[in-house]
Amino acid sequence: MNFCPRCGTALVLRPEGGRPRPMCPAEGCGFTFYGDASIGTGAVVLRGDDVLLIERRTGTRVWWQIPGGFVEVDEPIHTAVEREVLEETGVVARATDVVGFRHAFGQPDRPIANIYVVFRLVAESGDPRPDLEESFAAEFVPRARIAQHEGLSSMSLWAIETALAAPSTGGLSLEPHREGLHRPGHTIFRAPGLGAAQG
To answer: Closest Cα to residue 175, out of 158, 199, 154?
Structure first.
């Protein structure tokens, strides 16, 4: 980023938080660029003993993975993962808990970071079908055949194995609504083994 998105002034490097950062020198603006960050979701969708997989394609590369995608800035993260599953596979699924996450980070000269949150979901209705834009095949695969599935990404295999190994409430669970705790734009999860907060 070379120019301030607020006022258009050329950014300059100044020390902030222990490192030089692009900052706007215009009086009264105060913009500081801390880097780009995004949140992605991965969906381990279970239907009995079967797991939902999709085929992705980029140029000549073809691989299989769990469904998922990016969280929009105006939607709850658990809603995003359910939406992505529906868009990419036609399957209606309900998120039950979070089983893990991956943090991908950039370098000072490329300040881009991503958190990829893996959810476990239960399929409620619909038969898999690809959208032919982001997914080019979609199918439920028996869990016994997952590790041998040709072209399955290592990250998806990790996500599936983690989800299948965890108890049904072994991940972070959505915290039930409680007055004073929840505010607009917030979704709260609780650690495994803990009951809902009292109050």
So the answer is: 199
Two tokens at 50? 């079967």
Question: From first to last of its 199 residues, what are the pLDDT tens digits of the chain?
Answer: 899 999 999 999 999 888 899 999 999 998 999 888 899 999 999 999 999 999 999 989 999 999 999 999 899 999 999 999 999 999 999 999 998 899 888 766 666 788 999 999 999 999 999 999 999 999 999 999 999 999 999 999 999 999 998 777 666 776 665 666 656 677 777 776 655 444 4
Residues across the chain: 199
Q: How many CA atoms lie within 13 A of 66 on its CB side?
A: 30
| SS3 assignment, position 193 | coil
Measured distance CA(47)–CA(122) in Å, rounded:
6
**CATH code of the region 36-174:** 3.90.79.10
Sketch the domain layout of the chain as residue ranges: 1-34, 36-174
Among the four given CATH numbers 3.30.2310, 3.30.300, 1.10.3470, 2.20.70, the one describing domain 1-34 = 2.20.70
* Global confidence as pTM: 0.81
